[in-house]
Amino acid sequence: MKKLLIAGNWKMFKTISEGVQLVNIIKAGLHRITTCDIAICPPFTALSAINEALRDTKMELGAQDMYCETEGAFTGEISPLMLKDAGCRYVILGHSERRQLFHETNELIHRKIATALKYNLSPIVCVGETLEQREARQAFEVVKNQFDHCLGSLNADEIDRVVLAYEPVWAIGTGKTATPEQAEQMHSYLRRLLNEKYGNLVAGRIKILYGGSVKPSNSAQLMSKPNLNGALVGGASLKAESFIQIVTNACEQTFSGSSKS
Ligand code: PEP
Fold first, then answer.
1. Average of pLDDT values for 185-197?
2. What's the pLDDT score for residue 32?
3. Category of 197 on φ-ψ map: left (φ > 0), alpha (ψ -120 to 50) or beta
4. Residue whose C-alpha is closest to residue 163's, from 209, 202, 118, 198
5. Atom number of ligand 1 nearest to Cα 211
6. What is the rounded distance in angstroms from the CA atom of residue 226 to the CA atom of residue 65?
7. What confidence score (pLDDT) does residue 176 get?
8. In degrees to the nearest 10, what's the CA dihedral of 112, 116, 117, 122?
9. Looking at the predicted structure, is the pLDDT value of residue 259 above 50?
10. Which of 97, 131, 172, 208 most suits a substitution to test ligand 1, by most atoms within 8 Å of the C-beta?
């Protein structure tokens, strides 16, 4: 059975000391958890300190973005080597806030994914449609386009190290959540795309997370769906009790959910 992965995206919140304080409470609340994978993605400035705080745990560290070059004259950017050096295993790429606010294209995201893989970082690649696109019944087309252009040229070995995250833009930070059925519909579509390209075995191994206003009150229902392999959690990952509860719900799901392979 695939372990569920719960990743907390702290976005542009938490100073170093606030982050360490938060992670220490999360550690205490989750010290017995072994049945699901956990990743904490703080801002760049807190990566090293959080890495240190996570040292005696199974929780992993992730970054929220990176540039697609190893080093060079790219003022303000951060490289995969630097993320590895800070202790990261994961890096979130193609988040809708990067796409919308910083005009990141599928082409750039693809280059970032390829570079992350080259340096042995697992990219958590976000795809998802806006409300207008969903209302115009274009959700599947939009997600397929992002999938094709961001991941299209990866081989089976590379895609195996990718985590996908379906994050409908209309559900991010809005309090609106996709219903478990809506989420499952898109996740099974993504699984089908993976299957067509890489075959059953590889497609079955890839984790597809759901993100968009996941909270303790809706996480168990979402995670019960067969093609949901975890969650990318924004707002609720900033509060220790909510994050602990979401992870605890996911672990219970792993214990009882025999339908997931
Ligand atoms: C996110 O930023 O990836 C996210 C899903 O945010 P929220 O949980 O706050 O909707």
1. 97
2. 80
3. alpha
4. 209
5. 5
6. 29
7. 87
8. -110
9. no
10. 172
Q: If you take atom 7 of ligand 1, which residue's CA is the nearest one?
A: 234
Domains and CATH numbers, the chain: 4-256 (3.20.20.70)
Position 256 scores a pLDDT of: 65
Cα(172) to ligand 1 centroid in Å equals 5
Catalytic residues: 95, 167
CB distance 60 to ligand 1 below 6 Å: no
Residue with tokens 């059953």: 200
Give the lowest-confidence range in 3-17, 31-45, 57-71, 189-203.
Answer: 31-45
Residues 188, 51: Cα–Cα separation, whole Å: 34
Question: Quick one: average pLDDT of 9-14?
Answer: 98
Predicted local distance difference test score (pLDDT) of residue 41: 98
- Per-residue DSSP letters for 193-223? HHHHHHHHHHHHHS-EEEESS--HHHHHHHH
Ligand 1 atom closest to Cα of 236? 8
Q: Is the pLDDT of residue 258 over 50?
A: no
- Crossing angle of helices 216-223/240-256, nearest 10°? 20
Cβ–ligand 1 distance for 214 under 6 Å, the answer: yes
Question: How much is the pLDDT for 158?
Answer: 97
